[in-house]
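Retro notes (design track)

What went well: tokenization of the new backbones is finally stable.
What didn't: we kept losing track of which sequence belonged to which structure.
Fix going forward: every design gets posted as structure first, then sequence, in one message. First example under the new rule, 389 residues:
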């Protein structure tokens, strides 16, 4: 494997902004568009690395920096050889900076405070104060060892208006430069692997701030560009609008990442049509564990794809009694392990019994559906061309 990171443009869709790229990392190559299952606490809930591979997952978000600092701690992770070795995941991995958790925790000033230098929060168990700054965030991400790491940023809230959005953006830009400086002192992890650094566009729901933030990220000349903020993935109409604002400014040879997108299959179809390459969300596995299973068909529509379903939000609730004696799979044409082997009736029974096996089978299905949507998008964009990995 090459000890480098590279984004190679392959082909663009003729009728929208969707594209296929090939991304090279020290832990292998993958094609975009692709969905990243989230392993917040060093595991994608209920899924083994083998399960993930069989669903078509090419890259994961492994180990949230905030949670890894809390447990098991950086000394344990480093002693176990980094997150790849610890999780036994030998494919590409992205991790985050902890910025979103800072945003969430700072809503309670007794738990977390943000100042000029970074965030200061109490360990949820020991009460010890942890200082998360651009420098300590990058240092932690080095120990985690992900192929793609993120600059430390402040997630922009949708409340507070322009003043709050501007303050968060200015802090993000200042922390960007500090993150880059810390990263460039040693661009490799302690395990010898080159790490790519992505910047994060902030600016809330204000077009001029989003454009200003994009220019700042581009001037730093990082390996990839993420689009962040509370609105991204939460309000899909606004998410698409924000992408439309910044896309004309984005270079073709940089990976594009919308953070937190993937509540529903249609969401990733919408952002890819706007030119996005990678995305992550905890929702597919979280929804699966709580009984919400994707149900629908991937169909060609208006020169693109759509996820059509006769169910509200494109999901069935397996706990409903109507599935107790249903001998059909979740989705008739789904090729996941769950649908090829088990009925809705059996899954209904497992859910009611709170069986551990239910979580595994449900998560396999939901992640498979997300990856199948990505596969179909790549197939539609590439057409008859062949791309080798």
């Amino acid at each position: 494997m090459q000890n480098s990171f590279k984004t190679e443009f392959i082909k663009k869709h003729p009728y929208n902004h969707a594209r296929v790229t090939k991304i090279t990392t020290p832990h292998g190559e993958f094609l975009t568009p692709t969905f990243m299952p989230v392993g917040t606490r060093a595991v994608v809930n209920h899924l083994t690395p083998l399960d993930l591979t069989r669903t078509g997952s090419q890259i994961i978000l492994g180990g949230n920096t905030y949670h890894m600092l809390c447990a098991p701690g950086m000394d344990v992770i480093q002693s176990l050889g980094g997150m790849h070795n610890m999780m036994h995941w030998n494919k590409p991995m992205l991790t985050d900076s902890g910025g979103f958790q800072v945003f969430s925790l700072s809503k309670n000033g007794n738990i977390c405070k943000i100042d000029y230098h970074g965030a200061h929060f109490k360990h949820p168990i020991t009460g010890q104060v942890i200082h998360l700054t651009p420098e300590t965030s990058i240092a932690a991400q080095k120990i985690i060892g992900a192929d793609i790491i993120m600059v430390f940023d402040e997630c922009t809230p949708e409340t507070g208006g322009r003043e709050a959005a501007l303050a968060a953006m200015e802090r993000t830009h200042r922390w960007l430069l500090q993150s880059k400086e810390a990263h460039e002192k040693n661009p490799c992890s302690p395990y010898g692997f080159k790490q790519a650094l992505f910047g994060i566009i902030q600016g809330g729901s204000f077009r001029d701030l989003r454009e200003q933030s994009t220019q700042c990220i581009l001037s730093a000349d990082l390996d990839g560009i993420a689009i962040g903020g509370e609105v991204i993935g939460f309000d899909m109409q606004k998410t698409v609008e924000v992408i439309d604002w910044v896309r004309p400014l984005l270079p073709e040879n940089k990976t594009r990442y919308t953070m937190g997108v993937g509540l529903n299959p249609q969401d990733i179809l919408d952002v890819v049509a706007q030119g996005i390459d990678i995305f992550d969300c905890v929702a597919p596995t979280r929804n699966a564990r709580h009984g919400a299973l994707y149900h629908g068909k991937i169909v060609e529509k208006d020169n693109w794809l759509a996820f059509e379903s006769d169910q509200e939000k494109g999901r069935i609730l397996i706990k409903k009694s109507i599935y107790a004696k249903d001998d059909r799979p979740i989705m008739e044409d789904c090729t996941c392990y769950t649908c090829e082997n088990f009925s809705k009736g059996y899954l209904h029974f497992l859910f009611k019994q709170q069986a551990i096996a239910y979580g595994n089978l449900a998560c396999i299905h939901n992640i498979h559906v997300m990856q199948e949507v990505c596969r179909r998008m790549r197939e539609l964009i590439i057409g008859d061309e062949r791309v080798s990995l």
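Added context from the reviewer: The mean pLDDT is 95.
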